[in-house]
Amino acid sequence: MIVLVEDEDSNRQTMVRALRKTGYAVKDFSRAADAIEYMSKEGNVVLVITDLIMPEIDGLDLLREVKKLNPDIAVLMVTGHGSVDTAVEAMKKGAEDYLTKPIELNELRKRVGNIVEKKLLKREVETLRERLGEFKFENIIGKSALMKEIFKQIKMVAPTRSSVLLIGESGTGKELIANAIHENSPRKDERFMPINCAALPFEILESELFGHEKGSFTGAIGRKLGKFEIADKGTLFFDEVDSLPLEIQVKLLRALEEREFMRVGGVETIRIDTRIIAATKIDLEKKIEEGTFRSDLYYRLKVVTIRIPPLRERREDIPLLINHFLKRFSDENGRTVSVRLSSEAMLALMEHEWEGNVREVRNLIESTIVLTEKDEIGFEDLPEEYRRKDVKDLGSDKTDKTIYEIEKEAIIKTLEKTGGNKTRAAEMLGMALRTLHRKLKDYEKD
Known about the structure:
The protein is of the alpha/beta class and 446 residues long. The protein folds into 3 domains: 2-130, 3-Layer(aba) Sandwich (Rossmann fold), CATH 3.40.50.2300; 135-309, P-loop containing nucleotide triphosphate hydrolases (Rossmann fold), CATH 3.40.50; 313-444, Helicase, Ruva Protein, domain 3 (Orthogonal Bundle). Helices cover 48% and strands 12% of the residues. The protein has 19 helices and 14 strands. The strands form 4 sheets. A 5-stranded parallel beta sheet has the order 2-1-3-4-5, sandwiched between helices. The protein has a 5-stranded parallel beta sheet with strand order 7-8-11-6-12. The longest helix is centred in the N-terminal third of the chain and has 27 residues, at 105-131. The radius of gyration is 27 Å and the shape is elongated. Mean pLDDT is 84; it is low at 130-135 and 394-402.
């Protein structure tokens, strides 16, 4: 539901007609007080469009009241050219966007569409979080069937003390998932300690894991506690476990089986209760055949195995990730409006292979926001490697297509890919299902 507040009858009626024709449910008011009363009883309001200058209660006052009622309701401020500074101030106080008079109806529909779809997408994520109960999955973004299965596996394995092996390509979020297992376990109040096995040479790695005694080697000027001791009662995460030297593998296997070890140069046996989560992007069974990884350690680590799918296998999560990072990096870079993505740019990114997975999405969105002052990232703003010509032209050599024609062909092409499944097509396009239905009805009139 959209609430529209405008004291000038002709302007209000024109905007109402334009929005309803587009398919939105709109409730309009000439007085802000009446709109506030309505919203205090109606819980399905997504967006409030309000004039800035109004008698009795102006747009800024209405903004404050809306945020008191529900901070999640977006506010689009409408203002004259002489009040732009005030509108910008309103955005600093929580307004989503602003438009200047005279209102250009196509621009109104465009801004409303962006705001509503972003809010509905956010609600979908929150609904998914609620269905998952009180479990913590911060920064793990996904609503695809594959990711729902990952969430289910995390919930099942987290309360246990079993070792877990995470298998997935670079950038798929293995450390995030390891941390989620820890945060949802009885060990959550103890340390979660990651260690990158490929980043340290053998001499340092052994000491980092098991600690050392004073004088055990040159430079050992005192006793040092290793990660196993520091993470006692907590979780130790071995990233790139395939890089462990064989000598370390022997000592790690004993620590896992006996739950005890000795520091480098020490004689004292130290008992520990540290949970192990390991991660790899390499086929460990192949490394076993090559003689570079111990089979007994492999089977000790893979008590539970979770395979993390690459992003290209769960493309419906791409719009969620893009919008998540757009908001995050807009906020971090002090943008008064969250940067958005054009339909054409979104389609191009949906077609990309994402060999770097989620990490690549994150880096692309951050760099694009830093390097542009625009509020909307278009196809032409993407780096060259993300601008495939067949996506731009959508199977045509014509370069004079309107945005309407480009979007129409993108939707039709996506529907063909999904075999006519509108729900999946909407997810792939990063579009609300209701919006897709509305656009398809419009195409029937062409």
